[in-house]
Design a protein that fits this description.
- This protein is mostly helical.
- The chain has a single domain (about 5-110), classed as Arc Repressor Mutant, subunit A.
- The chain has six helices and no strands.
- Helix 2 packs across helix 4 and helix 4 (about 55-70) crosses helix 5 (about 75-80).
- The longest helix has 21 residues, at about 90-110.
- The protein is globular, with a radius of gyration of 13 Å.
- The protein starts with a helix and ends with a helix.
- The relative contact order is 0.16.
Amino acid sequence: MRARTRDFLRSLNIGPWLIGFNMLGDAIDAAEGQHSGGLIGCYDYLSSKYGRDKKRLDDDIRRAVGIAWREQCHVMEKVMGRPLNRPPSPKEFIYAAAEYLNQIEEEEMMN
């Protein structure tokens, strides 16, 4: 996981003490890099890397996203680009976070 992704997750109160922290960070980095195979390919890789089946992996990521939604809903809404009445799905959040981080990087490069 890249340092920028780690800092972003920490800003959402998702810390390394959560089981899904590293998995979510790696998934965001993979989505940011537009790896072929989408999240299915990413989940296959992460499943073997972390020794968890895909269902368990998705549950761990879902739990981390839920914590971020409860703790930093206003930031989550900014990332997602819309009001949230409930936590976004892991897939929605991963892609939105990747896009959000890409936009920040592009803005930094232009300045």
